[in-house]
Amino acid sequence: MHVTNHGAASSGIGLRIRTLGERMRTHLRRNDESGQSLVEFAVSLPILLLVLTGIMTFAIALNNYMVMTNAVSASALVLAVDRNNTLTPCQDASNAFVNAAPTLKASSLKFTYSLNGVSYGPYTGKTAGSSCTSSSLTTGAAGNLVAGQTAQITVTYPCNLSVYGHNFVPSCNLQVQTTEIVQ
């Protein structure tokens, strides 16, 4: 049904009155589209959640790597200035690392040291082995802290890249290493 106002005919303005049937069809069409949107959302939601969870898992691993990078620098500095100060240089460096990386599980850390070309380790957790403990400042690990020579520390930590119970890289390990000149 189309009604035209004769007084406004010269201006080209027309009024349209919709019937009840037209209104119902428009309403039903809108509901069909919103139902379709709901189905599309329901189908795509698991995929979106999988991608989001994967991104978060990778972000946690990347954050752990950044924490390790900063902590290994701090522990290498402790190792570099420990000459003539300690009988347990590896233990001091391990403690410095663990203190600088409180978000990491200490028992999962593996430390390896190289003092003046002599390797010590690997040691698990905060406790360095007895092979890196000296009886005097001139023998053993403490004696290998020679001014001007290198002290190297390598730390590994397992990364967990599992998403919804499936670990995509089960053998993943984060590893950081740095070398300092002994002072």
Structural commentary:
This protein has one domain (37-181). A four-stranded antiparallel sheet has the order 4-3-5-8, with helices on one face. It has helices at residues 20-81, 89-100, 140-143, and strands at residues 2-3, 15-16, 110-115, 118-124, 150-158, 162-163, 166-167, 173-181. Helix 1 runs antiparallel to helix 2 (89-100). The chain has three helices and eight strands. It is of the alpha+beta class and 183 residues long. Strand 6 and strand 7 (166-167) form a beta hairpin.
What radius of gyration results from the CA coordinates?
34 Å
Work out the oligomeric state of the chains in this entry: single chain
| Helical segment count | 3
- The H/E string reads EEHHEEHEEEE
| Total discrete domains | 1
Helical proportion, percent range: 40-55%
**Mean pLDDT across all residues, rounded?**
86
Low-confidence stretches: none
Tell me the major beta sheet. 4 strands, antiparallel
In terms of structural class, how would the helical and strand content be classed?
A: alpha+beta
Number of strands: 8
Kindly estimate the percentage of residues that lie in beta strands according to DSSP: 15-25%
Task: Give the strand order, joined by hyphens, for the main sheet.
Answer: 4-3-5-8
Q: Report, as a whole number of angstroms, the end-to-end distance.
A: 97 Å
Estimate the global geometry from the Cα principal axes. rod-shaped
